[in-house]
Design goal:
- It is a single chain.
- It is flat and about 50 Å long.
- By secondary structure, the protein is an alpha+beta fold.
- The chain contains 4 helices and 3 strands.
- The model is unreliable at 3-7 (pLDDT under 50).
- It is 27% helix and 19% strand.
- It has a 3-stranded mixed β-sheet with strand order 1-2-3.
Length: 113
Amino acid sequence: MARRSSSKIGLARHDATPMLTFQQVILNLQDYWGARGCALLQPYDMEVGAGTSHTATFLRALGPEPWRAAYVQPSRRPKDGRYGENPNRMQHYYQYQVVLKPSPSDILDLYLG
């Protein structure tokens, strides 16, 4: 039996690099931003629409002091899930937030790694 080409049917090749798990992606991001002077924070657990609602980001962004932080922020907006029509549909996702204040001159190089 002839073997189909994986590219024709949309399957991953067996010899390709294994896919990273969600945990590995987060650990890689933590290592990267931690090595660049960011405080690695824990998530702020409440209904927020974006990572910028984290108290350490929001409150520290207001002051004049330099601040570097990185963290995963779960975002839950149940009232927005499915247009707010069905209370049983929850919208939940994760955002990796990095705050660099003041913005460094090489911000694109840092972002692109």
